[in-house]
Amino acid sequence: MEQGDDLVLLELMLNRFKRLLAELQRGEISRNDFHPWEIEILLDIEACELDRRHRTEILRQYQRAVERQLEAGPGPPMKLSEYLVLRSRKGQNST
């Protein structure tokens, strides 16, 4: 596969990821066709049991982190639990 093809696949993956998060934030998943990595992300987000008061902001920060991840290298997008661990470590290192 050529580099151009990889970039197209990453862009498609990022678009699917953004759509998935937008549907979650609306509270309505309007499709029934998912890639395996999307199902893993959905299950992981549910398992994280985010506090409702902070859910929207955490998901927004998570989306930005995944955008940076996919700009820098290959997918699939990191899971929310992975992002929360990285965020926790970054907070510990800055104190």
Descriptive overview:
The mean pLDDT is 90. The N and C termini lie far apart (44 Å). α1 (3-26) runs antiparallel to α3 (52-72). It contains four helices and no strands. The protein has one domain (3-93). The protein has helices at 3-26, 36-48, 52-72, 80-93. It is an all-alpha fold and 95 residues long.
Instruction: Summarize the main sheet.
Output: none
Measured by DSSP, the beta-strand proportion falls in under 5%
Number of helices: 4
Number of strands: 0
Look at the helices and sheets and give the structural class: mainly alpha
- Helicity level, as a percent range? over 70%
Low-confidence stretches: none
Give the H and E element order. HHHH
Radius of gyration: 14 Å
Count of discrete structural domains: 1
Averaged pLDDT? 90
The CA-CA distance between the termini, in Å, is: 44 Å
Shape annotation:
globular
SSE layout and pairings?
Blueprint: H1 3-26, H2 36-48, H3 52-72, H4 80-93
Helix pairs in contact: 1-3
Describe, in short, the structure shown.
This protein is 76% helix and 0% strand. With 95 residues, the chain is an all-alpha fold.
Descriptive terms for the model:
95 residues; mainly alpha; 4 helices; 76% helix; 0% strand; globular
